[in-house]
Amino acid sequence: MENKAGPQHFRISSSLKDIIGRDLITNDFVAVFELVKNSFDAHAKRVDIVFDDGGLWIVDDGKGMSRNDILSKWLFVAFSAKRTGEEDDDLPEGFRDRISLRRGYAGNKGIGRFSCDRLGSALDLFSRQSGTKVVHKLEIDWSDFEIDPKQEFAEIGIRMTAPRSLPDVPHIRALSDGGTILAIGDLREHWSRKKLLQLRDYLAKLVDPFAPPEDMEIHLHARSEEAADEVDRAKGNPTVNGIISNSIMEVLEGKTTRLTVDLVNGKIATTLHDRDRLIYKIEEDNPYELLDDAHISADLFYLNRSAKSTFTRRMGIEPVKFGSVFLFLNGFRVFPIGEEENDEFGIDRRKQQGYARYLGTRDLLGRIDIVAPVAVFREASSRDTGLVESPRTKELDEFVLRHLLTRLEKYVVDVTWADTLDADRSDTSGLSSEQARSRIIEVVRLLAGRKGVRLLDYDRELIDTISDRASEFERAMEGLAVVAEQTGDQGLLERIERSRRRFEQLREAAAEAEKKAEAESRKRTAAEAAARAAVQRAEVFERKYEQERERALLLTSLEARDSETLTLLHHQVIIYATAIQDAVANNLRAIADGDPIDPVDLAADLEQISFQNSRILAVTRFATQANFKMDADWIEADLIQFMDEYVSNVASLFEGGQFATFDRGESKLVTRFKPIDVSIVLDNLLSNARKAQATHISFTVRRVKQALGLEMLVEDNGRGVDAAKVDRARIFEKGYSGTASGSGLGLYHATQVITAMGGSIGLDPTYEAGGARFLIRLPRPSKAKGAEVEA
């Protein structure tokens, strides 16, 4: 028998319901979220999720559905009006005035409605289109589709009626206009308190926690948990009931390093902030052709140890358990990207190639938000495997690597990680050191020097001329020249040129001072040789020889202890005094010649004179008392022992024996340092305590963490720092003084010395006992240098 002519058709089993429902949506949380996304696409301002008496209601105040919407869209399996562009064609005029049409939609596959089956076996759908009074009700028993797999899907009847009004839902107010109510009964699983709290956390992350949609609120209600909520609220624990919100931006803002990238209209704008300070802002052309029709905005946060601790304390969860880099499509989370074990962008795979060079997901929090027309990016149907792979997703991966991860990495690795103490800072105090500023300048230089990159803005205080005493001065000047040329900053170019001239003058002066010191040493050596020759000639007289021999032994022992030390100290005084003499001479010469003196240059010269004079004062103390042999500008020794001996044996002669005490316990820190410069730090702290009318100052050394080295508490009982009169954040700045008679250089010099050693100094903000307490942190030196730290 021949087949009848004409086309044949697929037949669809009733089992299709399971395939596109429970088999795809395997997570109850995802099922709830799919229904919330439908409310978002319906332009709802509010969604209420209500658990009561074994049932679940999802209520939104969106545009609602007409009878035709239900028949031709909701009941049309796999059809998506969002994909065809018909979703909002029949919006009532009044509703159009209420909303702003979105560029994209959260869902577009036409299967999210089967999430209802995942949650419960019965569904009553009520909907009223905005601007009308007509209510439509759809009754579905999902078990009807499970009786006979041979039965045609379309043959199973669904009852549709038109009740007079929308039903009352427990705990919430009735809808005043349009909206949709999903009443899901015969729930398939028990929703315990633990599971409800998990749902709350899940929704908080799924609705973009970094930039949530401002036009839709989500509320969770469960009457059975109200009593337990009262108890947990009193303890500060999370509660089930209430609005779904996320304070993550409040927690992270100003406490982390944040990179913000915006790709729109063919341009990529990138801004980097370190805690509360702008580092740079750049713009470049978009090289990704397949991403041109999308608007991509991203925020990537690096969390140091301090930020992680703050996050855990405020959020009640460790950052690593919260997630890493989330992906959002048209305002809603693409699951499971960003979950604890997810490495969608290969961040951890990359970190394995170089642990000290790359960031991992444990270091990062962030979001990538894509707003794009329907089908530009497609979420996988299973709802737990991210985006469908395509050429666009490959370009997205490249964009994330090149413009987010490596840009943030370059700054964190080269600037932040280079300062071992920065891990425990919540502010940017460490960025003001010459070393940190030099590293920042280098990062900006590398960016500004790239083809196609336009430097729009930068922190002019941090990225500015640095002290000509800084070891990185010459490289920093090269970087600043690139920045100045890129931005057309003529003032910066002029300051660079002045700084370079001063650097050359100082270098020449230092060389001249060294030559003078060497000449003095040669004269002294010649004189000592002549003296020894005279003693040898005296050996002719035997009797005098014996007497002279005994006397010479005594003189030789004294010379070994004192003369050599004083000679070397004298050598240093010549160098420091020559630097002062040259600075004064240069300015006097300019005055005599009638040349204009730049106030900036004059201030720099005076600061240089002050610093060198501090060194001379320190040398005089060594020369009279220090039991210490200084055979070089730098020495490698136990820094803590040196500080102890200086405070106890040297400073005590000038300040009084009972004025200062030093408690180092068993602490030891062998490292390279300049003794004279360290004494300047101690002298300034002692002098400031005296000026504050303190009768005692104590130095206490303690071990804080293996990675940090040592911390020294310097505490006095003086007047303290009056916050009403003195800006505590500025007391370490050059030229800022808390007293009318101060120069504003003492603590500035102390800061320069400590930061040059890789450490930090600051006021203890928690100290309220009267007087002042300074915290000095000294990092553990590299083991490669043979240094050691003990406690």
Biggest sheet layout: 8 strands, mixed
- Quote the beta fraction: 15-25%
Average pLDDT metric:
79
CATH-defined topology of the largest domain: Heat Shock Protein 90
| Total domains | 5
Low-confidence stretches: 101-109, 547-561, 625-632, 784-791
From the N-terminal CA to the C-terminal CA, the straight-line distance is 98 Å
Label this structure with key terms.
Ribosomal Protein S5, domain 2, 791 residues, eight-stranded mixed β-sheet, 5 domains, alpha+beta, 40% helix, Heat Shock Protein 90
Could you characterize the architecture of this molecule?
By secondary structure, the chain is an alpha+beta fold. The chain has 5 domains: 16-245, Histidine kinase-like ATPase, C-terminal domain (Heat Shock Protein 90, 2-Layer Sandwich), CATH 3.30.565.10; 250-426, Ribosomal Protein S5, domain 2; 434-489; 490-625, no CATH class; 632-791, Histidine kinase-like ATPase, C-terminal domain (Heat Shock Protein 90, 2-Layer Sandwich). α16 (490-537) packs antiparallel against α17 (542-593), α18 (599-625) crosses α20 and α20 runs antiparallel to α21 (746-756). A hairpin with a 6-residue loop joins β20 and β21. The longest helix is centred in the last third of the chain and has 52 residues, at 542-593. The protein has 21 helices and 24 strands. The strands form 4 sheets. It has an 8-stranded mixed sheet.
